[in-house]
Amino acid sequence: KGEAITRIDGIFCRFNDNTHLSFIAFRHSKDPSKNRGVIFRDGIAIIFHKYEIVTTKYLDFVKLRN
Fold it and tell me: What pTM was computed for the model?
């Protein structure tokens, strides 16, 4: 079985004025000093926000089936 090189975490925000921000953290699994992060706004942030919604719904669906 392969081991992950990095893990991705994030915070995905949609504000009342319909603007978006995404804070993406790339965590190094063995060396925290190699952790990195990126902030996206608007276009790319919208895609991350939609991806998070779809992923959450899928994980909820899987939990219900088990």
Answer: 0.59
Give domain status of residue 1, yes or no. no
Predicted confidence at residue 2, as pLDDT, reads 59
Angstrom distance (rounded) from CA 64 to CA 43: 32
In a domain, 11, yes or no: yes
SS3 content of the chain, % helix, strand, coil (to 5): 40, 35, 25
pLDDT for residue 16: 96
> In which domain, by residue range, is 57 found?
6-65
Radius of gyration in angstroms for the set of CA atoms belonging to the chain, rounded to a whole number: 14
Cα(5)–Cα(3) distance, rounded to whole angstroms?
6
